[in-house]
Specification:
- The structure is a single chain.
- By secondary structure, the chain is an alpha+beta fold.
- It folds into two domains: 262 residues, Bira Bifunctional Protein, Domain 2 (BirA Bifunctional Protein, domain 2, 2-Layer Sandwich), CATH 3.30.930; 92 residues, Anticodon-binding domain (Rossmann fold, 3-Layer(aba) Sandwich).
- The chain has 15 helices and 16 strands.
- Strand 9 and strand 10 form a beta hairpin.
- It binds adenosine-5'-triphosphate and magnesium ion.
- The site of adenosine-5'-triphosphate has 19 residues, from strand 6, strand 10, strand 11 and helix 11.
- Adenosine-5'-triphosphate binds next to strand 6, strand 10, strand 11 and helix 11.
Length: 417
């Protein structure tokens, strides 16, 4: 096929069967949100570029290399949303949500755009769901979002492997940073080209490098540098989730790729996903609102990829087959046409022939698409009656038109059980 007419590299067309799975997952995310009291928030697909450059940080991959930015015809610099947290923070500040009773719990489900190298589980347009909790500096807030993540993953049939760390605060991180820089200087020859740049600009990010795992493993551990407050916070988070039976593992090299994190960071992995194993990631980001024009507000949250969750979930998020009726037209006339709309009035998913098929061909078609067939037309129709057949067990009957919707519903319900 002419490449010109193919979808852009790294994007997806989601056809009905997969779209139905996506829809199910979306309902599941909403139900978990409702359970914990998180309200939906929607922000624009694009923002002024500064929201992401200042919010996420200009040294990060998503801002430096992966950004879809453009200047519109009015000269405004805009960027397609690469992640949700900075956009939600912008909205939080703009609408003065810090005046709301604390904490403020928000969640979203939205497309994200990153110009990455496309691979399985890595797209240039993908969807993320995310949960954000504003207003509480307490370890219980970190613990709550971890429990939300666990419940979500359990609902899709996954046993999450949760990795947690603390990247410290303004008091203790500088000391750790200095120790890292001198460690990396000794290992300069072992670092990849990107990490040589990171080693001075943002040394924590070297720990995140997929190539330099060995160097990362030998690096100083931030736990030896935590100030008393950071240590107490981390210990409390760990104790609170352990109390709820959530097993988490501390991972010293976990730092996350975005600049706004503070203290707690975490990721959930599913080894079945192979190279793209991160199902979701998050942490605390107390300074973020100050980066997007507001006062600092303590906050914590996470975001996960919809596509990866669907891949990991497998059949646990199956397409919900809708048992439907098919109305076949017997002989000439418009009986099927009328009955079709009558069943839909009663909320029963129904299909009628639009291909001028013979009755035999209509029955064949019904076999592919429906559980119950209604035969409408001919002499019976004149007498106010229709024929019924259930394709799954061959049950047949004749019913007065006035009883039809009730009978069809009963036959579909029985089939479901
Ligand atoms: P990775 O290490 O896989 O690049 P990330 O650290 O860039 O992930 P985040 O920015 O935390 O990811 O995004 C949250 C989640 O969104 C990830 O855990 C992952 O499940 C998903 N995700 C991120 N980038 C993509 C992408 N390009 N395609 C599909 N899903 C993605
Ligand atoms: Mg990434």
């Amino acid at each position: 096929m002419d490449e010109k007419w193919q979808r852009p590299r790294g994007t997806q067309d989601i056809l009905p069967a997969d779209a139905a799975r996506v829809e199910r997952l979306r309902r599941l995310v909403s139900s978990v949100a409702a359970l914990y009291g998180y309200g939906a928030i929607e922000t624009p697909v694009f923002e002024q570029t500064a929201v992401f450059v200042d919010g996420v940080g200009d040294g990060t991959d998503i801002v430096q290399h992966e950004r879809y930015s453009f200047v519109d015809s009015g000269g405004v610099a805009l960027t397609l949303r690469p992640e949700g947290t900075a956009a939600v923070a912008r909205a939080y500040v703009e609408h003065g949500l810090s005046a709301w009773p604390k904490p403020v719990r928000l969640y979203y489900w939205a497309p994200m755009f990153r110009r990455e190298r496309p691979q399985k589980g890595r797209y240039r347009q993908h969807q993320q769901y995310g949960f954000e909790l504003y207003g509480s500096p307490e370890p219980s807030a970190d613990a709550e979002v971890l429990l939300v993540a666990r419940r979500l993953l359990e609902r899709v049939g996954l046993t999450p492997q949760v990795l947690v760390n603390s990247i410290g605060c303004d008091v203790c991180r500088p000391g750790y940073r200095a120790a890292l820089v001198s460690y990396f200087q000794e290992r300069w020859a072992d670092l990849c080209e990107d990490c040589r740049r990171r080693a001075t600009e943002n040394p924590l990010r070297v720990l995140d490098c997929k190539q330099d795992r060995d160097v990362a493993r030998g690096a100083p551990d931030i736990a030896d540098f935590w100030c008393a407050a950071c240590r107490a916070h981390q210990d409390a988070v760990m104790a609170l989730v352990a109390d709820q039976g959530l097993a988490v593992v501390r991972e010293p090299s976990l730092v996350r790729g975005l600049d706004y994190y503070y203290r707690t960071v975490f990721e959930v992995h599913d080894p079945s996903l192979g190279a793209q194993s991160t199902v979701l990631g998050g942490g605390r980001y107390d300074g973020l609102t100050a980066r997007v024009g507001g006062a600092p507000v303590p906050a914590v949250g996470f975001a996960g990829g919809v596509e990866r969750l669907l891949m990991a979930a497998g059949s646990a998020v199956a397409e919900d087959p809708v048992p439907r009726a098919y109305v076949a037209q017997v002989g000439p006339g418009r009986a099927a046409w009328r009955v079709g709309e009558m069943l839909r009035d009663a909320g029963i998913p129904t299909e009628v022939d639009l291909m001028a098929r013979s009755l035999k061909a209509q029955m064949k078609e019904a076999g592919r698409r429906a559980v119950v067939v209604v035969l409408a037309g001919g002499q019976e129709w004149e007498a106010g009656r229709v024929g019924l057949k259930r394709l799954t067990d061959g049950r047949e009957a004749e019913a007065p038109l006035v009883d039809l919707t009730e009978t069809v519903r009963a036959w579909l319900d029985e089939h479901e059980r």
